[in-house]
Amino acid sequence: MTKIFAIALNLHDHNTYDGVWHNQRERHTRFKHNLPYHAEAYAHQSDILNPADYSLNNEFVKEYFKKRDNETLAFSMTSGGIRMCKDILPKEVLDYKPKKLWDHYFDDDIYFIDHHQSHATYAFINSGFDKSDILAIDGIGYKFRCVFFDKDENLIDLSDKLPIGWLWNHMSNLTGFGTLGASKLMGLVGYGEYSQYYYDIFETILDGPITEKKQPLHELINIERYGIEDLAHTLQKFTIDKIKQFVYPLKTCDNLCIAGGVAYNGYMNEEFTKHYKNVFIPPAVGDEGQAIGVYQHADYLINDNVHKSETFAGKEYDYVGDEKLTSYKPIAQAIADGKIVGWFQGKSESGNRALGNRSILADPRRKDIKDVINYTIKKREDFRPFAPVVLEDRYKEYFDTNSPSPYMSRICKVKTDKVPGVTHIDNTARIQTVNKEQNNKLYELVREFDTITGIPMLLNTSFNKHEPIVETPEHALRTFKRTALDILVINDWIIRK
User: Which of 50, 141, 373, 384 matches a 20 to 30 Å C-alpha distance to 112?
Assistant: First the structure.
């Protein structure tokens, strides 16, 4: 069995994976997306994002590209990542371009696959499907922007037809949210209405090579007149329309895997469930999970091993406090009484979604809870909604969707008025379903809350404040002390203010 160490060198969200521990660098540096402040400032001013202009951390590359005994180094990179390692890589690597899912470059102890291959592999391996269509779609990769793999693993390049991630990134940048602020822009979808003006502009932008623009985007689009909300709403419709136009005709089976940053678009993901019988989106679906796909790709071809990664793949930390947690009832009762709880358990989640181990939990029945958490804890935009975590065997009572969503990856209609705290302005919610096997502690807490209130769900959002999700007990305690959180639970210990 060959030992493998996988790294992903990206414009943002550098991460590594050794088959056990998924190291997301931002969790330890405490700088979100690992972008230097001057680079982020540049992105806000730039009309066309040029990764070569970013000043990336070469020390990171030197650390992970050093010789390792009895170990294969597997990696992938974006156009931004290549700046960090182009002087130490052979030309064959730089020129590599796959035609099928399992294509790769392998020389001595260096194993290389394309950025979009790593996305696709991560989704496919963890899906458990024998055969599947795979869509890998994001803002910028290395050789591609968007690719589709059919059930026979053939690569179809959709980069020129479907650069949707590129479009979202630039619209986000143009509207003041920054190049990596597409999730914020998506939060405005429900506030807007359809605009033919914007739709025609989007068609114009994607008409021809996307690198050859006749006008800068800020000159082409009149946001002040037509509004950000309508832009967001229309961009979402445009996205789904283009998916129907270019992806649906490629369907080769009933299964679909989706990965890449655009796979965080819950509206799009829900739409796919109407066209495919089975749809799988993994938890670390963006660049922050890329190293896992790299590892899985190499492990399959080198070791003939199908390695499924864990949802919770961070390190586990010890902590001893003064008040022991002996039952979930007092925490559930505190939430029902209006308290907001920081919930820190075991290993941290892979990806950008807090799925119950690094979470802030609250009562979804409260009409004011979104404003309270946004203003007093998260310190973020007031329009951004929060997600429910609901018992898997009860989700159909409250939400109009046809299958469980364990990784908070789909947005669907809400069927009740009983949970206004997790219901967006357009009567939708980005749901997370939970069962005993996925996360026993979270499951038992939600079940206890259901016993007290008759509502089988909690509001669940990431445990952070203008920072990456907390990783260590020290991070959790610091965020607890400087926010309006009422209670903190670390493993089996309760901390109160």
Answer: 50
How many whole angstroms separate alpha carbon 136 and alpha carbon 147?
A: 5
CA distances from 241 to 34, 61, 202, 266, 425 (A): 33, 40, 12, 15, 22
Q: For residue 129, give the amino acid letter.
A: F
| Helical (H) or strand (E) element with 448 | helix 440-453
CATH number of the domain at 323-496, please?
A: 3.90.870.20
192: its two tokens: 């807007």
Give the Cα separation of 44 and 49 in Å (integer): 9
Is 0.90 surpassed by the pTM of this model?
A: yes
Share of the chain above pLDDT 70, in %: 90
Question: Does residue 214 surpass a pLDDT of 90?
Answer: no
Structure confidence at residue 26 as a pLDDT band (50, 70, 90): confident
Strand partners for 487: 341, 496
Which helix (DSSP H) or strand (DSSP E) does residue 370 occupy?
helix 369-373
Under the banding of pLDDT at 50, 70 and 90, the label for residue 490 is very high
Cβ contacts of 147 within 8 Å, gap of 6 or more: 116, 120, 135, 136, 137, 155, 156, 157, 158, 159
Confidence label for 45 from pLDDT (cuts 50, 70 and 90): very low
Output the six-digit token pair for 52. Answer: 């070569």
Task: Let me know: does 317 contact 472? Beta carbons within 8 Å.
Answer: yes
Q: Does the structure show a pLDDT above 90 at 124?
A: yes
Task: Spell out a b/e string for 95-132, using b for 16 or more CB atoms within 10 Å of the CB, else e.
Answer: ebebeebebbbeeebebbbbbbbbbbbbbbbbbebeeb
DSSP state of 374: I
Long-range CB pairs of 211-214 (<8 Å, 24+ gap) are: 211/48, 213/48
Give the three-class secondary structure for 425: coil
Q: How far is CA 338 from CA 96, 289, 335, 344, 485, in A?
A: 56, 35, 5, 19, 11
Largest pairwise CA distance in the chain = 65
Give me the sheet containing 105-107, strands edge to edge: 22-24, 15-17, 3-9, 71-77, 110-112, 105-107
In this predicted structure, the answer to whether residue 57 has a pLDDT above a threshold of 50 is no
Domain positions in the chain = 3-160+253-303, 164-246, 323-496
Banded model confidence at residue 35, pLDDT cuts 50, 70, 90: low
- Give, in order, the Cα–Cα distances in Å from 59 to each of 64, 65, 66, 84, 353: 9, 10, 11, 9, 28
CA 10/CA 25 separation, integer angstroms: 11
The two beta strands, 133-137 and 71-77, are unpaired
pLDDT band at 14, cuts 50/70/90? confident
Helix (H) or strand (E) holding 165: helix 164-174
3-state secondary structure string, 48-113? CCCHHHCCCCHHHHHHHCCCCCCEEEEEEECHHHHHHHCCCCCHHHHCCCCCECCCCEEECCEEEC
377 is written with which tokens? 């804890």
